[in-house]
Amino acid sequence: MMIENPPPASGPARIPAPGSGALSAALAAVLYEDGPGEWHGLWRKAVSADVFRHTPHLPDEARWAQAYERLRALHDEVPDPVALAGDVRGLAALHEWTGQVDGATATVAGIHFNLFLGSVLDDTATVPAHDVRDFTSLRRTGVFLCTERAHGNDVSALETTATWDPADGGFVLHTPHPGAAKYMPNTGPAGGPKTAVVAARLLARGTDHGVFLLLAPLTGEDGGPLPGVRIEVLPRRAGDPVDHCATAFAHVRLPPGALLQGRHGRLRPDGTLDAEVVTVRRRVLHAIRRVTVGKLCMSAATAGGARAALAVAVRYGERRLVSGAVPGSRVPVNTLRSHAAPLLRATATAYAITLWHRRVVRRWIGHSPNERAAAERLVGIAKSWITWQARAVIAECRERVGARGLFPANALPDYYANAEGAVTAEGDNLPVWCKAGSEMVFGQSLPPAPPPPNGSEPLTDPRFLLGRAAAAERHWQLRARERMRDAPAGNPLERWNHASGAAFEMVRAHAVRAAGEALAAAGERCADPRAAALLDGLAALFLLDHLREWTGPLLADGALTAGQTGAWAAARDDLTGRLAPQLPVLTAAFEVPEEHLGRLPLLREPL
Question: What is the pTM of this model?
Answer without folding.
Answer: 0.94
